[in-house]
Amino acid sequence: MLEQFCNSAYTLDMSHFNDAPPDARLLEPRDVLDRDEMAGIDERVAALMAALSSPTRIRALFALFEYGETSAGELAKAVGMSPSATSHQLRVLRDLGLVGRRREGRSVFYALADDHLGVLLKEALYHVDHNRLRAGGRDL
């Protein structure tokens, strides 16, 4: 059964890998389980999920997804946090490679690091909505 799952793992369009070298291959679920060839993949996925486990970081990521590149000050207003708290969360997200930044004079602008992070955020939202609707539309 695991083999069947692994073989069908990538049925979605993975166009964001078009720039990869011709001999590169996409990671698959089996790579998380294989501790020899791809050591550390499980830890990287866990670090990503840990970053997404914070409601404040989730709000910051969704704000960047919704509005695109945003200044740190505007992002703080959008997520309802102080500028220093927002900066701390952005530093965590930047260290994990989830957001990028650009300086323009004294201003710093942040954006999602890549498009497939938006796909991950949308899928998480769809999952929450699916559970909400299965519960009769009530808040969870």
Describe the structure in your own words.
The chain has 140 residues and is mainly alpha-helical. It has a domain at 48-113: Arc Repressor Mutant, subunit A (Orthogonal Bundle), CATH 1.10.10. It contains seven helices and three strands, in the order ααααβααββα. The chain has helices spanning 2-7, 29-33, 41-51, 55-67, 72-79, 83-95, 115-134, and strands spanning 70-71, 99-104, 107-112. A three-stranded antiparallel sheet has the order 1-3-2. Helix 4 (55-67) packs across helix 5 (72-79) and helix 5 crosses helix 6 (83-95). The longest helix has 20 residues, at 115-134. 12% of the residues are buried. The model is unreliable at 1-12 (pLDDT under 50).
TL;DR of this structure?
This protein has a domain of 66 residues: Orthogonal Bundle (Arc Repressor Mutant, subunit A). The chain contains 7 helices and 3 strands, in the order ααααβααββα.
Describe the secondary-structure layout.
Layout: H1 2-7, H2 29-33, H3 41-51, H4 55-67, E1 70-71, H5 72-79, H6 83-95, E2 99-104, E3 107-112, H7 115-134
Antiparallel strand pairs: 1-3, 2-3
Report the radius of gyration as a whole number of Å. 18 Å
Please give the largest β-sheet.
Answer: 3 strands, antiparallel
Mean pLDDT: 84
Biggest sheet, spatial arrangement of strands: 1-3-2
Query: What's the CATH C level of the domain at 48-113?
Result: Mainly Alpha
Under the CATH scheme, the architecture of the domain at 48-113 is Orthogonal Bundle
pLDDT under 50 segments (min length 5)? 1-12
- Share in β-strands: 5-15%
Shape: globular
Helix content class:
40-55%
Number of strands: 3
Tally of DSSP helical segments? 7
CATH topology of the domain at 48-113: Arc Repressor Mutant, subunit A
Class computed from helices, strands and strand pairing: mainly alpha
The ordered H/E elements are HHHHEHHEEH
What is the fourth-level CATH superfamily of the domain at 48-113? Winged helix-like DNA-binding domain superfamily/Winged helix DNA-binding domain
Instruction: Give the CA-CA distance, first to last residue.
Output: 32 Å
